Amino acid sequence: MAAGPRAAAARMIASSMLDTPSHSRSHSLPLDRPRASRWRRGVVALSREKASEGAADRILRRFGLAIGIAGVIAAIVELPEIADQSRFVPVRWTVVEVVLAFGLFPVLAVVSIGMSRRVIQRVAGAAAVSFLGAMAVVPVAYAVPDAQGAASVWLYRVLALGVLAAVLAWRPPFAVTYLVVGSASSALANLVVLRETTALALLGDFARAAGLSALFLWCVVYARAAAARVDRESAIESSRAAAVAGAAARERERARFAALIHDAVLSTLLDASRAGAESPVLRRQAERTLEQLDECRVAETEPDRLDAQSAIGFLRSAVHEVNPGIRFTTRRWAGFDDLHLPVDAASTIAAALAEAVRNSLRHATVAGREVRRTVTVTISAGGIRVVFRDDGAGFDLSRVPVDRLGISVSILGRMRQLSGGAGFVESEPGEGTTVTLVWGGNG
Length: 443
Known about the structure:
Structural class: alpha+beta
Low-confidence stretches: 1-39, 41-52, 298-302
Strand content: 5-15%
Strand order of the largest sheet: 2-4-5-7-6
Largest sheet: 5 strands, mixed
Helix content: 55-70%
Number of strands: 7
């Protein structure tokens, strides 16, 4: 990488102090504070970070935890029946079936506590496929006919677990397809185990398995769709609130400036036309008017600001307006996430971020694979740090033509003009691109 990008990276390391306030302040904490309080603060920080997730991510996480725990409970409940039917099956095949059917559900519960949405869905998908694998083992395992006394193979009764994992991992059409395939597989598994059955009984097995699993599938699909609607409405309302706040702030500022012009400037000019330039009263009035104008120029003129949650919603809306498929994550540090972001600063950051996303969509495409794009917003110590990353084609910063204004003007130029703001771009051919936007309340 050229010297320019390395310098930018060095500056970005300094700006990254925004998202590590807990380290910079750790020296000031009393050494004799009980460890329990530190543990409590960590739990609070984790809960605050999760609270900043969208409703869709939260419902996915909770369903993942619930389904994972349900898989463990089902394995325990089915143990007597599994042990009974294992009399007709070699032990190794029983172990294989149990591991394939239930092995990944504890993993799903664990990853749902703290891992990303993508990891949760991948583990859920693997659990669904593994459950079908257990069904596929039945014809081989039950080579000896007739599991005497059994009404059905034990896998038949826990098919809903596989369906729940599928609906957590995939879109509804794929989950419905899984339901049909799983129900047919479980009915055929009963046929393999029991041998003596009729077509009507086989159809009944399919209908019972599909009906029960469809109920669970509908509940999860409906809940996830409702959570997605909540996220969309929340983003729309945040964007509207920010726009209304900005309009109201501008209107108040115009009214304040109009009052200043009328009460001070025009009054001073009128007195000057009447009293002449030698009046000491006029001189003091003119000096005061100049002071007021100077205060108006340098003072804080943006009374309306966004808190942390509103700023996150505003930026998420800006990103998803360009491409709703981009992953958006947030990081907040309990006790250090107080933010008062002016509306005009939020608009500038959102515009620069949207331009970075558009540039990536236009230029970062890589033939033969999907380019991953993520936005991470970190809020701490009265500041905000926004990082957009892609693992796409990348480029050589030193070879960007001067007439390409997307980076120099629309991203870096915007952030340079923002008081307290800065922007950095890092990229190399084949290594993707990282765009970092920072703003600090102290400028």
